[in-house]
């Protein structure tokens, strides 16, 4: 995270908040439900609640419960959240490129593949 932390600190957001913003941006203005967002961001649901509260207080996300199903919690990125992503994305991508250059293409691809595998592991898997 040392590659990314200076940019996060400059913008007063945490690593978890950045993951949520990035995922919502990648959803291309589609609404995500909280359980989907927790899974995609690899954040436990109770922790995600606090992250979302702070992001909503900052005006970066909008949360609501649909009238038809109050059990669901929907989240979208606000225009302010989109603007923050746009402001930060180039520097974040530059840092990813630095990591990729340091590791080389093959090791970087292996790393990304292994991280995907870890993300998809379940505690009850016997692998």
Polypeptide structure, described:
- There is one protein chain.
- The protein is mainly alpha-helical.
- It has a domain at 5-88: Winged helix-like DNA-binding domain superfamily/Winged helix DNA-binding domain (Arc Repressor Mutant, subunit A), CATH 1.10.10.10.
- The protein has six helices and three strands.
- The protein is globular.
- The two termini are 28 Å apart.
- The mean pLDDT is 90.
CATH architecture of the domain at 5-88: Orthogonal Bundle
From the N-terminal CA to the C-terminal CA, the straight-line distance is: 28 Å
Largest sheet: 3 strands, antiparallel
**Range of strand content:** 5-15%
Q: How much is the average pLDDT?
A: 90
- The class by helix and strand makeup works out as mainly alpha
**CATH homolog superfamily of the domain at 5-88:** Winged helix-like DNA-binding domain superfamily/Winged helix DNA-binding domain
Enumerate the spans where pLDDT stays under 50 for 5 or more consecutive residues: none
Strand order of the largest sheet: 1-3-2
Number of helices, counting only DSSP H or I runs of 4 residues or more: 6
**Share of helical residues:** 55-70%
User: What radius of gyration results from the CA coordinates?
Assistant: 16 Å
Task: Work out the oligomeric state of the chains in this entry.
Answer: single chain
CATH topology type of the domain at 5-88: Arc Repressor Mutant, subunit A
CATH class of the domain at 5-88: Mainly Alpha
How many individual β-strands? 3
């Amino acid at each position: 995270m040392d590659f990314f932390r200076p940019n996060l600190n400059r913008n007063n957001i945490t690593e978890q908040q950045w993951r949520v913003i990035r995922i919502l941006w990648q959803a291309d203005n589609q609404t995500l439900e909280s359980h989907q967002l927790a899974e995609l961001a690899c954040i436990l649901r109770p922790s995600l609640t606090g992250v979302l509260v702070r992001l909503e207080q900052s005006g970066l996300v909008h949360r609501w419960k649909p009238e038809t199903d109050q059990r669901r919690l929907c989240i979208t990125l606000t225009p302010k959240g989109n603007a923050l992503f746009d402001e930060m994305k180039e520097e974040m991508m530059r840092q990813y490129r630095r990591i990729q250059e340091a590791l080389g293409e093959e090791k970087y691809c292996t790393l990304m593949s292994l991280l995907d595998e870890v993300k998809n592991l379940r505690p009850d898997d016997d692998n």
